[in-house]
Design a protein that fits this description.
The chain has two domains: about 240 residues, Rossmann fold, CATH 3.40.50.150; about 110 residues, no CATH class. It is α/β, with parallel strands linked by helices. It has 19 helices and seven strands. The protein is globular and about 55 Å long.
Length: about 375
């Protein structure tokens, strides 16, 4: 694991209890087909499971952090052992007073190290595993201690009501976008607060320019141009559950398709680069690379991207996000990788995880 990210970021705790990247645009952008072999950054597992449910022949999830793979393993056990409604309770998408009992049913489907990991964390199980990570605790702090200083609960509930774009814009301008909202948002979504409380200071090594201002502008887009009522990620940030909206992998219409294909899923405690080095000769057609390139220098990003391209074939697709550090195909790979800029921009405009500055789609030529 001699990668730049492994050297700079502490990957021992749970960083993400759920995946904060919109699987709707990921599945559409990658154009998953029945014969696809997908390599996915695991994180908490939701988007690897979405690729599985979309029909991929094989999904390989990799992560440097064993804690993230434990999150994926427990989700897989949940799909095997629970009903859809019970899985939502275990995740925390719905209120529940029986999560410990639900975990006991899943426990028998876990291997010994993963059982030991979760047995030692009963408080996380009781609260819902979707809130287990540092990133979710950051949002929980915002929800409990910052948001009440800005808006009353009734105002938050009105924001999440279904309404057309015009009324959304008026609500945002007249009721939501107060001076107090702008001031506290700039403080809470600053480089310092986000690095210390939400992600990791090393994640901002290659970020240039104001952080909070860019996130605030994207938040305006999410609250006006997109529908807050249909955004599960916004629901979680503001209420601590997914409300009536659910991410792709947790929707009832996708539950059986994921459960029936679990034998096509595997996971490994490796970086993307180390896995590709180990499995030379394996052809991968679709890549979900999350935002891993933000942790790398431009030189290391170019090297890793070339390694990804070498593992694919013409027509293979790569998807990844930029949050604050700009990462796009370098000129040196112009003959091997084609940016799908128009398609990516169209999908990014619909991205329910709105805080990313760009969604990148590229095709192997």
């Amino acid at each position: 694991m001699n990668t730049e990210a492994a050297r700079q970021v502490d990957f021992t705790p749970i960083r993400y209890g759920q995946v904060w990247e919109d699987a709707d645009i990921l599945v559409e952008g990658l154009a998953i087909a029945p014969g696809d072999v997908c390599l996915s950054v695991a994180s908490a597992g939701d988007n690897a499971l979405a690729l599985l449910g979309a029909g991929a022949a094989r999904v390989i999830a990799v992560d440097l952090n064993p804690a993230q793979l434990a999150c994926l393993a427990l989700r897989v056990a949940g799909y095997r052992e629970l009903t859809h409604a019970e899985l939502l309770e275990l995740i925390g998408s719905r209120p529940s007073g029986r999560r410990a009992a639900l975990y006991q049913r899943c426990r028998r489907a876990l291997d010994a190290p993963v059982r030991a990991f979760w047995d030692a964390r009963p408080e996380i199980i009781a609260a819902g595993i979707g809130g287990a990570g540092k990133f979710e605790r950051y949002f929980a702090f915002f929800r409990r201690h910052v948001l009440p200083c800005v808006h009353r609960r009734a105002t938050v509930e009105r924001l999440l009501q279904e309404r057309a774009r015009g009324p959304r814009r008026r609500f945002y301008a007249d009721e939501w976008n107060t001076w107090r909202w702008r001031l506290l948002s700039r403080m809470f979504f600053s480089r310092f607060a986000l690095g210390r409380l939400g992600r990791d200071p090393a994640c901002f090594k290659y970020v240039r320019g104001p952080v909070a201002r860019r996130i605030l502008a994207r938040t305006c887009h999410a609250l006006t141009e997109l529908a807050p009522a249909a955004n599960p990620y916004l629901h979680w940030i503001l209420t601590g559950t997914h409300g009536d909206a659910l991410p792709w992998a947790l929707r009832p219409e996708n539950f059986a398709g994921i459960r029936d294909r679990l034998d096509r899923l595997e996971w490994h405690s490796l970086s993307v680069e180390d896995f590709l080095e180990r499995e030379r000769g394996l052809v991968i057609t679709k890549f979900n690379l999350s935002d891993i390139f933000e942790y790398m220098s431009a030189e290391n990003y170019h090297r890793a991207l070339a390694q990804v391209v070498a593992a694919s074939r013409p027509g293979g697709r790569l998807a990844y996000w930029n949050m604050l550090a700009a990462r796009q195909r370098p000129p040196a790979l112009a003959g091997r990788l084609r940016p799908l800029r128009r398609e990516a921009a169209t999908l990014h405009a619909l991205d329910k995880t709105w805080f990313y500055s760009a969604f990148v789609l590229e095709e192997v030529t």
